[in-house]
């Protein structure tokens, strides 16, 4: 199967390019499953029920989040009820949301979805290593294809978790830094890995926010509103090819869709 | 002119591939200047006079460092005396080493070299923004080509410094995370930018260190020796094309040289 | 002269005990000057013009702040205009507010007031050591009594700044942790020192906030409103005795005023 | 019963004052149990078997450690074998050492001993809240007197753990900052609490280290050897009075023993 993972969707620009681009990407790139990190989808921070539905309607099959997961409380019922959205598995047991999910891909395969938060340079949280062991043990053994979004700051921690899970999951792909890394690879055990798949939103920005605002605050200490930027919108992600029988990844390809490609993608979606 | 910047050289594997590869790259890629970050060159941390000389002999024209700069005290005389090696400019005034340097490229152009450390998720240090303003003002105005190595952890801080310096320097290229980012670009003002050019050393590792060691310490809290790894050695860097008259960058290209390419590079060097 | 420094005033409970207690303390403890840290005075974070005036009316002669200084933008005009309120001196030059002030004590002495922020475990900021050198050099040499509020997290950094300034200022007293330390002392050079003078606000709390709220968020990751608590309100601070001629401290005494002491203090204020 | 907890013993000066003072304190202050944090006992960092034995011989009944626990690997056999020394309970399961211990006090009561590390501003680690729940459940229910050393940086986290455990343990006393806090209290549920009991070692220092060395490194970035200081040695700790039947604390008293008090203490020890 072919699985597309879309990195942090930031604000309206990110949602727009995802909504317009995903249907065409499914056709054009022959995707069996689309997973997206939506932790910045609502105004740059958090997720709302409306946006959740908008993304699902656009063809996103499963949603992960990150450190901003609970910024908008209205998402709680979605996190409790819907079966295709997960919270980071290394949050406390009492945290709202499910710690893993399974979704059915277009080719019929079941895919396990896990989200984990990094510990380094992040808010205090339990070990993602221990949590990974736990949720992988909980998942039914017939779920061969297993996907992990590792939402982390430090490259060293991402690489270490990737190596730790090599051969046990189909892919460990990172989010949170909002910058795609050029290290996409398949590890010897068959796990696709990339430190960060990058951001889906305005690239004429500082990780999605208005440059002038962030710069003013940095240079003067005056607080400013870090509004979502608008220019040079792109969709970042990676496509992983996975053997459905073994769950092993055989290839990973980085993608970056720009606004000018949207008409062609929309035409492809219509044709199908 | 064409300038190659080589990311963090890690241990013997990193030095070996740099020493063997650089002469051929100069010929093959028509390089006018080679700058390298050598903060991890000595056993994974710091730099020694011998290694400094070895790198210069291989064709490295200027050297930058980072947070590990003073790990080996024997490098102090080199930092004080040599004119092609800089310390981070936002260290205290009293810190050993020069806060900027100029080196002459093969095409005759003078190139200013600056190193700055990030503040986010790093040890306490003064603002790289203020320090950049200061050293750029100190540099002779006829030095049009100006290079900045931003040794930083956080992507947001790297992008912000890049935007802050856009139009004022030829390139702001990052180091420290040891992972190349796929965001190389030339900003509107003519500054080449990339969050991180990546590591020069063993990629079968956790940012250059033995996987088994780092994993054991993470899983058990037992301290282990984080020895430099050995497998899958690569040279990471980026080549920036710069207009000598204006100092504006016109192109940036990411490179990743693997061991199997070394014989061809060595042959190219011999032919020249 | 005798100088009282009051630690972080938190919310309405903190303001109330300060307003009711300070006039009596001035009489009862023969105070020549009262300085207060008010960074948490407005609803637990920041300061407003009204609260500034309320504190000054109660007998607070000078005000310092901390990392929450700009949380309420309405304080900007006060920071720009009033001469008895300072911003941390190691914020950027462009930051709103003055980096030092002089106020006249009841005994006629001029007192220099400085605020500095720590670097360790705080948001990125320039060195408080360099900033201290700069502002002390700027202050008129006839200002012998000099007071420093060091708003910092780490005890090691506080002790180091205290030692660095020993003999150059009358006192280095800490704030920010909201817990008084039992290390008040006069260093050999004549500088009174204490890592933290503690909080003025509700002690039946987690550093001033409702216990149940902070605990729920910690245990479940659900965000809650960290409202200011209400029980067991105390005023924390320290009184430093200083030789007006030399600016040397001769004694430091920790104080903790509880609500039940207010009637006696109010009676003392009335009598005077 | 009366329990003395001694804060971080630093280097030879700390060991010396502990060895000379503890026997006399047991007599003079009628102590039933002495617990000490020894994470800095060996040259300022870590613990060795010899020092472990020296402290036990001096009358220390149980030993806790902290973030520096594994700095000296020779302590591993002691951690594995001895029954009166614990590792932080929120380290990974695989970490060397026991996660709780019981020791018999001089009055015959069994006392449970637990060590926990803070998460805020410390290296990544699992929640001390969850770990506390776990180890308290493991301890035999007839162990009524239960002691927790919370080795943490942030006052807010210390207060929160203290409140979380109020009524469930006899005392939550802090270590790690090396500065005693003036907040010792007994919470409503009967748990004695203090953010930090302070350091046992040289107070003419920066948290135990030579001032000149720490200052040079801070001002110049040059690395120096942070040797243990020598002047003004004190033993810091707190004595908790506990009802043996209920395990509830009834009183807590901060103590600070200076070198000049040692002769009297030694005489008291001899008389007994
Ligand atoms: Fe994030
Ligand atoms: Fe994000
Ligand atoms: Fe490095
Ligand atoms: Fe580095
Ligand atoms: Fe505060
Ligand atoms: Fe603060
Ligand atoms: Fe510690
Ligand atoms: Fe310690």
UniProtKB/TrEMBL annotation, chains A, B, C, D:
A Pfam entry, by short name: YmdB
Keywords assigned by UniProt, alphabetized: Metal-binding
Coiled-coil residue windows: none
Domain of life according to the entry: Bacteria
Residues that coordinate or bind Fe cation 1: 8, 39-40, 178
Source organism phylogeny: Bacteria, Pseudomonadati, Planctomycetota, Planctomycetia, Pirellulales
GO MF entry, a single one: metal ion binding
Protein name listed in UniProt: Uncharacterized protein YmdB
